[in-house]
Amino acid sequence: MLIAILTDIHANREALTACLAHAAERGAQRYAFLGDLVGYGADPAWVVDTVREHVQQGAIAVSGNHDVAVLQEPGKHMNPQARAVVEWTRAQLDESQLAFLAGLPLTAEASGCLFVHASAAEPRQWEYITGTNEAVKSMHATRCRVTFCGHVHEPALYNLSMTGKISSFVPTGDSSIPLVTLRRWLVIPGSVGQPRDGNPAACYALYDDNSHELIYFRVPYDYETAAAKIRAAGLPQSLSNRLLQGV
Fold first, then answer.
1. Scanning 39, 157, 162, 229, which has its CA 20 to 30 A from the CA of 15?
2. Tell me: the pLDDT tens digits for 64-89?
3. Three-state secondary structure along the chain?
4. Which of 231, 111, 233 lies closest to 243 in space, CA to CA?
């Protein structure tokens, strides 16, 4: 089955629309959403409704730290701009949309894979996987051979050999990577709605759980419209600039 892996949408309707269309054109049969559906962007209600529709059709979805923050007080490590958007987002969602976010699990397993927003070691602590130490800790926390996670906003791929040797690299878009079965893998597709690697194009990945092939994609989208919506909503100007610059 060909699974589209999408994470960190951050209420970006234009980016999600582009990625879903791209995945459908390439024959995606199932979708997995790895959290942070909301936050930063101007279309939280539309994004939540769209993901909910996919879940009703069999998609996987897990919770992210911004999703949780909308339901309760933001964590102490959340920056002031993100906090301001959390408050604004909460007012944009109705009871059913908030209930959907509240019902999302922290992790999910399917097709021999683990799906989680941050580290599998302590999902509720929202640890960033920014290097091999964090990656190993996360991989050791699950029995699954392949882990998909987000939270970092930049594409990355880690693998662990049977002898415990860890390696990593930054994948390029549209390249097919065989996730060989003698290794364990941790896949970070990058952010759909707010990439931070200097490239404003949206990120997502496709995984074939039969052939174990993984492809990272960069999808151009109308980020100028998404940025203009942020400004029109009265949200911080810097969040609009991030979309334009991909940082």
1. 157
2. 999 999 998 765 667 777 788 998 99
3. CEEEEECCCCCCHHHHHHHHHHHHHCCCCEEEECCCCCCCCCCHHHHHHHHHHHHHCCCEECCCHHHHHHHCCCCCCCCHHHHHHHHHHHHHCCHHHHHHHHCCCCEEEECCEEEECCCCCCHHHCCCCCCHHHHHHHHHCCCCCEEECCCCCCCEEEEECCCCCEEEECCCCCCEEECCCCCEEEEECCCCCCCCCCCCCEEEEEEECCCCEEEEEEECCCHHHHHHHHHHCCCCHHHHHHHHHCC
4. 231
pLDDT value at position 75? 59
Amino acid at 66: H
Domains of the chain: 2-245 (3.60.21.10)
Q: In the numeric block, which tokens belong to residue 8?
A: 């960190």
The pLDDT of residue 61 = 98
Flag whether pLDDT at 175 surpasses 80: no
